[in-house]
Amino acid sequence: MRLLIARCSVDYDGRLTAHLPEATRLLMVKADGCVAIHADGGAYKPLNWMNAPNTLVCTDEEWVVTNPKGERLTIHLHEVLSDSSHDLGVDPGLQKDGVEAHLQVLLAGNPSAIAEGLTLVRREFPTDIGPVDLLCRDAEGQAVAVEIKRRGEIDGVEQLTRYLERMERDPALRGVRGVFVAQVVKPQARVLAESRGIDWVEVDYDGLRGLESDELRLF
Amino acid sequence: MKFRCERDILVEALGTAGRAATTRPALPVLSGLRLSLEGDRLEVTGSDLDLTISTTVEVAGAEDGVAVLPAKLVGDIVRNLEPGAVELDTSGERPRISAGRSEFFLNAIPADEYPLPSEPQGETVVLGAEHLADGLRQVVGAASTDESRQILTGVLMAAEADGLRLVSTDSYRLAFRDLPGNAALEQGQHVLVPSRALQELARALGDASEVRLTLAEQMASFEVGPLRLVTRLIKGDFPDYEKLIPSDMPNCLTVERQTLQDAIRRVRLMARENSPIRLSMGPDGLELRAITQDVGEAVEELDAKYDGEPLTVAFNPDYLMNGLEVSPGEEVSLETRDAQRPAVLRSTGSTDFLYLLMPVRVG
Description:
Largest sheet of chain A: 7 strands, antiparallel
CATH topology of the largest domain in chain A: Trna Endonuclease, Chain: A, domain 1
Strand content of chain A: 35-45%
Helix content of chain B: 10-25%
Structural class of chain A: alpha+beta
Order of helices and strands of chain A: EEEEEEEHEEEHEHEH
Shape of chain A: elongated
Number of helices of chain A: 4
CATH class of the largest domain in chain A: Alpha Beta
Radius of gyration of chain B: 24 Å
Largest interface: A-B, 17 and 21 residues
Helix content of chain A: 10-25%
CATH class of the largest domain in chain B: Alpha Beta
Oligomer: heterodimer
CATH architecture of the largest domain in chain B: Roll
Strand content of chain B: 35-45%
Number of strands of chain A: 12
CATH architecture of the largest domain in chain A: 3-Layer(aba) Sandwich
């Protein structure tokens, strides 16, 4: 990432023409070639930019960025105040609050929250149509396939049904039963699960995380 | 199916049934409304499987039949037609809606795929609509909307010695209303009805004089005039609410309800970003105060009668306001023990209604 703070003016020539008069701005050149010109305000949107792929030709007086569509961004550098480059490495990506993934981790560590006597065999147990979230054994040694969703709806039950059908073909797992786990299991999903002999369990995510709210509650 | 009907009558029927239809249906067919015509009787049904609303209207029927039409679209079309008679004809290749010089042709949804709920089989009891409407207005708002605690999204209907009790809570507040004389349930019986269904029921009650209630193990149906509402019941144990209601509270503030509401409405303008409103109670009366960092502060003093030790308690202004809005009578009392335990809001002279409210912790 190259960061240049400079007094500059900018001309864009492409689908239209645009001109940014002389002012102090931040110019960013990202590792993939994207060039962005930012003012000292606004949230994330640059004043002007050109996505990769493009060609950047830098001289002391100006930067010229062109792309295959024939668009051209000319940055006239009047005074460079700062010029630095940093290797940011590979970005790990945006980490959303992965409730579903985190539920799997929490329940893998505490399978008895699903049913008393359950022990974990492995997470992400592979079947030939995809991995089932948890493979466990109950107190009698019976295999138990657990599918975990944030919201338990019919499609989740269908998914678990498919896994169970594949797992039943494995002699080591024969007799496997299914448990459908979610923070909330919708009534239709409960009916479908029960009609297929699949147990369903609702779990308290915050409780599993051991979170205690600072809020005062009645119970 | 073919019929003619006044636009406004059809708009209302489509709107009523359409409130149960959903834009994110479990089955695609449930994005539609089922229209069924027998003679001059048109039944319009919307459902999301949890809640089904049907209503019937009189129309000029020409040809019996059943059709399922996209709920939102058909509602929008009929609503925007010129006032007067609307004709709906599904006998052609595509259902046709016409009025005056306007014509719309829709793509129908296969009607045989529409899942009509089974009717709850059981004894039907008749409830007085006026008091029920009043009770629902008072308790439904305190139910939770957080589906991760589904039990709390319901309203408990429980048999009491001489009537019916309605209770709801979202864990921050609890609303409780007794309806004496409305013996809808058998002694000891209780059911948990989704608040969404009761909200629709309250809306339908209007000027009705009675409601017919039929309960089955997992379902309940409410009939009000031409409207029938069938809802799934919520399974599970409702919190032991009776244990939550404190007795012998040492402090009691008595104040005019409307005066307090008006003052809160003003002061809460400064209670932004989830800031609470502080009630300072003492021998001089009541002071309301709201402070939001970087925004400002509001203070207002009110005449009030107070028995107890001087105390400042903070509440969520919306929850406090909701409690006042649904309290009957001109005067309310707010009973407190301290700043961290539940307060009880009651109407002076009424024992049928109670609103329990948890304070907010402030620094």
